[in-house]
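[09:14] KT: can someone run the structure on this one? pasting the chain below
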Amino acid sequence: MLVFFRKRYFVSEYTPIDGNIAFSVNASDRGEASCCDPLGAAFEGCLRRLFAQWGSFCVRHPGCVVFLSLAFIAACSSGLAFVRVTTDPVDLWSAPGSQARREKEYFDAHFGPFFRTEQLIIQAPHSHPHTYEPYPSGSDVPFGPPLAVDILHQVLDLQTAIENITASYNNETVTLQDICVAPLSPYNKNCTILSVLNYFQNSHSVLNHEVGDDFFVYADYHTHFLYCVRAPASLNDTSLLHDPCLGTFGGPVFPWLVLGGYDDQNYNNATALVITFPVNNYYNDTEKLQRAQAWETAFINFVKNYKNPNLTISFKAERSIEDELNRESNGDVVTILISYAVMFLYISIALGHIKSWRRLLVDSKISLGVAGVLMVLSSVACSLGIFSYAGVPLTLIVIEVIPFLVLAVGVDNIFILVQTYQRDERLQGETLDQQLGRVLGEVAPSMFLSSFSETVAFFLVGKYESGPQERQVAVSWVSHKRVEAPPSPLPWSDVCVPAGGLSTMPAVHTFSLFAGMAVFIDFLLQMTCFVSLLGLDIKRQEKNRLDVLCCVGGPADGGSIQASESCLFRFFRDSYSPLLLKDWMRPIVIAVFVGVLSFSIAVLNKVEIGLDQSLSMPDDSYVMDYFQSLSQYLHAGPPVYFVLEEGHDYTSLRGQNMVCGGTGCDNDSLVQQIFTAAQLDNYTRIGFAPSSWIDDYFDWIKPQSSCCRVYNSTDQFCNASVVDPACVRCRPLTPEGKQRPQGRDFMRFLPMFLSDNPNPKCGKGGHAAYSTAVNLLGNGTGVGATYFMTYHTVLQTSADFIDAMKKARLIAGNITRTMGLEGSGHRVFPYSVFYVFYEQYLTVVDDTVFNLGVSLGAIFLVTVVLLGFELWSAVIVCVTIAMILVSMFGVMWLWGISLNAVSLVNLVMSCGISVEFCSHITRAFTVSTKGSRVERAEAALSHMGSSVFSGITLTKFGGIVVLAFAKSQIFQIFYFRMYLAMVLLGATHGLIFLPVLLSYIGPSVNRAKSLATQERYKGTEREQLLNF
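[09:31] RB: done, structure tokens below
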């Protein structure tokens, strides 16, 4: 009976032999034995024995283990020879299966890719507004500063100089003529130049053209300008000048594309001129693409060096943003290297436990720390190599983020292993390999728990994120082509997520795959190569040989290695842990963290969505000036194309009425619905009536016009400018001939319309305007896909861009329904080039919840299993990690960090790093058998807190602080701020909140584990602590 009631004690595996920390089995916190206790104890024992035997093997055979590890690293890293880096923003941020990506591919396949654009925004800061007085009568008309005739002449000189720019590529001369868009080529090789000077045929003489006498000027450039802004396609301004307005390239120049800073439609009040040079894009021809890029480089250099005190010029070429990003990245390379160097230096020094200055070079572990860091880098290289073998492209965000993640995970494990050994004392008769094996058996399950849960979480996210830096493009448009502009953030409250499932983010997918593999390989290397190297380093230390210079002997005294405790460990054990877990302190901690959580939940929907692209530019970049001017002067939004897919019957009267917008067409036809939407532009964000090829075709073919003519002998097309009696009207001046063409007649004359160049006698020729808008099938025997183009209203913020895309899709869906196309195999969809970049923001909230939810779910399952089926412990870990993630959103709101793909990657990473802060302490709590939850929490925090603090918090903090000095705003915001937040939140939750939470609601003692621990120490030196 005395034996039965006697208290029995045993020592935790995290306790040094000389510690007086004994744990009571018969304490009040033992709880009731559950059916999972024996299973958990058996699983725990199996893991312990497995890692102990493996650790002993690695220490006994270091040469073999290190050689095989190096061979594995070499084999995996050699895959880097096949590495492919994805820099195309479409591949980075838009999944191949997304709606916008499919629509983009359909549009490109049927109508060709969008053009490259070079654009200038010009102001006249020293010029003043002037007033034009029409002759003989009329109200005075004010004209803005850049519309003074002397300024227009200077701008024309600049425009002509740009046209004459030459570049060299492969010893060949490249001119604008070689790469520009010339829609009427080969008949008219003039480049498309969207400029107000095209109203004057890009000619000084036309600009100076005036009609008058010695006393009055009857008509001059003012007269012509006022006419052309109202009728840009006119071939005769009907004034005394009789000059054409149509551009020299054969197309109209819309005033809202070439003028800026005016009010309402008073184009004469413009305060800026906009000149755009569309350039052909060559997606599949690298040689031609590089020729265009060479000319763009010459263009940039020319404008940068152009001097005219009367003009202020903001400009951008198609390649400008990528060039500036590269320049900025190169400028921050030194900062990033210093950041990693600080972390590496700390790790190398902090691993050692220096007992005296005499043994400084013996007790230090610089070489072991360097080896640990090299393993982290090797795991990253192996991950990149493995996926390069598999053909998975690499992204810049992987290179920037994954080393930080793996360093956090890997260094923490290294500190836990080394510091646990330093606090341990070799048992009597125990060899080094047995001791290291025993230590590894104690700590490896915890390391395995954190690493494996992170690996599974990342792989699951990578699996569900199907698809292929780092750059996001917001697009503003001129004419048919894009000009990149900075989007602004979007409040969550403005996001309406459509039904139909989650979108995918290739950047998150790629990061998750690479990160999961890197973390897993890093754990394998730690369990093999690092354990062997640790054994070799201990042997070196025992032989009193210097660190790094291992062949040189050290001081003769202190030859044996004694168990020792670091100052940080003693601080956690003697001061910090008892203070934190005092009865009066614990409620305060809970209240503070619940308050922070409540605040973060309250501001969740206030975190902005989007990425202001100006953040990705250096402060001294000329592109910043362009972004500012674009936002200030732009008066037209991006063009939007309503595409009617192949399959519609245009030859029947019913089919025509469903599409056209003229007399006799349906009230709810395609063109009419877009026109109606343009009347409600504040809501629909459709700014202008659509250009309709079918209505212009009907006007062109009318017998009343002189446009459609054929040779009566050959039936071939005869242009309206041809004077030949053999040319007759296509259709007779009869009631039947005045009706719309149908059937074969419709298809007979349509190719003629699409090939007809505008001329003074017929400005309706469709070659320039519609040659790419209509797909002809079977040598002109049928009509395939077509589009009807209009423009969005001015879009400046991400909210504007996203709302415009949603409203356009709503309009297109309604058109599809009213045309009765549902289920027909073809439909109407809207397309604008920015859709493919902004579609991610429609579902970014769902994507965030989904990705973080999958990560937490994976962590929960792995934690349940690896903690020996401790269900409640897994719940506590996941609740704490979830609190960290929610608090991250609170910091994002406070610190102005928007939610986008870059920050989502960081959030997924913070989920992984949070495991490191929580899992080790939770496992130490579960294996501890102290008398109460408070005592167990204090023991867990004492023995694991110092390793977690020194392994993650201090390591990361030094490197993160350096990032604050990066020149790049995007580094300062999305890396310095978010990294600092995730480390501070992780440390505070893991080292303050979690121990207190465990002291209140932590799991009870596992009795089966307690008995197993007692049995494990039976017959050893420690048995005296178990029975007394």
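[09:33] KT: thanks! Residues 506-542 form the longest helix (37 residues).
[09:34] RB: yep, looked fine to me
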